[in-house]
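Hi F.,

I've been meaning to write this up properly since the lab meeting, where we talked about keeping a consistent format for the predictions we share between groups. The idea is simple: the sequence comes first, exactly as it goes in, then the C-alpha cells exactly as they come out, then a line or two of notes. No screenshots and no reformatting. I'm using this chain as the first example so we have something concrete to point to.
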Amino acid sequence: MRREQVRTGGRSVCRVFFLVLLATLVLPVRWARASSSDFNLNVSDQALGLSLGTDLTGTGLYGSVGYLEHRRRGSVGDAALELVANANPGGHPIWVGLGARLIYADASLIHDSGSALAVGISFHTTWIGYNRIGFGGHVDYAPNAVSFGVTQRFLEYEAHVGYYLLRHGLVYVGYRHVGVSYAGTPDITLDSGINVGFRISF
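Output, unedited:
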C-alpha cells in the first residue's frame, strides 16, 4: 500500500508540474499576436507522450511543454525553449533547433524524483522530391553539473519517420529512449521502444 501511495504521489506531482508549465506557456500566448503552434501525441503499449509548442517570437524562439507517463516505470514533465531555424537556406529545408529543457523526472521503480536542465538539439526535414514523407528527432542531455537534488544525469533521444496525411498533419512511427540516474542508483530507463503518433500544426 505504501509503495502504491509513493508511486501515485510522484506521478501527481509530475502532472501538476506539467499543468503549471502548460498554463505559463498558453496563457501569455493567447493574448499575443497570431503564432504557429504544434500539438504532438504518441502512444506505445505502456507509455503515453504529449506536448504542446508555439512560436514565441518572429525570430525563431520556440517554447513547449511536454509530459510522458509510463504505466510501470515513471513519468517526466518538461518545459523547453529553443531557437529554430532553417540550417540549409537556399536549398532543401532542414529545420534545426538548439535549446534547453527544464525536466522533472519521477522513477516509480525506485521511488525517487528530481529535476535537471538538459541541453539539446532537434531536427526535422522532408524527403527530397517528395515532401509528404517527414522525419526528424532530438537528443537532450543533462550531466551532473546541471542536475539538481538527487538527480545525477538525464538522457533522452528520439527519432521518427512519418507521412503527411494533411498539409499540417503528420502521422509517424518513432523510437524513444528516456533514462535518468539518481544518487546511489544505477541508470533507470523510464521509457524505451517504438511508439506511434501524430503531430498537427495550427
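Notes:
The longest helix spans residues 2-30.
The first strand starts at residue 37 and ends at 43.

If this format works for you, I'll send the rest the same way.

G.
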